[in-house]
Amino acid sequence: MTRKVAFVTGASRGIGKAAALALAEAGYDVVVTARTVEEGEQYDYSPTLAQSRERAMPGSIRQTAAEIRHRGRDALPIRLDLLDRRSIDTAVEQALRAWGHIDVLLNNGIYQGPGLMDRFLDLPDDAVKKIFEGNVFAQIHLTQRVLPAMLDHGQGIVINMTSNAALNDPPGPAGEGGWGFAYAASKGAFHRLAGILHVELRQRGIRAYNVEPGFVLTESQKVLLGEDNDLVRQYGGAPPTVPAAVIAWLVTNPEAMAMGGQTIYAQRFCKERQLVPGWPPPRAK
To answer: How far is the C-alpha of 181 from the C-alpha of 117, rounded, in Å?
Structure first.
């Protein structure tokens, strides 16, 4: 039970991968979960119904696991599809069977596919249901499966990756610097979970946080949108290592104990505490 274990969803690339590596560097062995086991697997990542087509993205859970082991920690790669409840149950069962407990749950993975950037009048019911399944109901299910083991262990940390879209209206329509209704609504519902967990379970050793990463230019966004797009021009963008460093801080720094239930704004937090050397880069004169 001296082993420290983190369970990370969406860990094949982006913020999830960066967080898994940061947690490994902080001394955690990591259960690495996502639906992409081997690089080259194809899924539909297109954010609108009109552009729906399958493609492969960089990264896989096996690659992330290899990088964790290279850092001297153990890794357990397990396929987990947020639209498949059985895969969620299997992943938790395998993790607990292998390592006995889970200290940190990072709910980072989200639904990827059509509907996220579609405008309200273009949204069919089935797309909305998939988005809520992958962004809300799957996370509820997973967290309910992990919490009993945390409570038996006497402690645990749940970190939920939230979004500015959950908190604010977009500056423009989807496709013009904004985001789709279904994405924003699903993240808004998910955003409420950390505060409820804090109120209900803090006396039993559970800490819960929201981390709002700001706009982060991930591998998927580079493939889908390019490195020069409306969102980049509107928000700039930080590397995935920024929210990852904040997550590692939350699970290792004693100051985080007093922040339970709060929303941590990763880019501001990282800048104030200088958690990533060289970021943000100095402004050009």
So the answer is: 8
Rounded to the nearest angstrom, the gap between the alpha carbon of residue 251 and the centroid of all alpha carbons in its chain is 15
- Cα torsion 169, 172, 177, 180 to 10°: value is 60
pTM for the full predicted model: 0.94
The CB density around residue 164, as the number of other CB atoms within 10 Å, is 16
How far is Cα 280 from Cα 258, in angstroms, rounded to an integer?
26
Give domain status of residue 280, yes or no.
Answer: no
Q: What is the CATH number of the domain that holds 197?
A: 3.40.50.720
Per-residue pLDDT of 254-280, as tens digits, reads: 999 999 999 999 999 999 999 999 999
Q: What is the DSSP letter of 121?
A: G
Query: 228-253 burial by CB neighbour count: b if 16+ within 10 A, else e?
Result: eeeebeebebbbbbbbbbbbbbbbee
Q: Token pair of 76, please?
A: 């357990």
Cis peptide bond N-terminal to 47, omega within 30: no
The total number of structural domains in the chain stands at 1
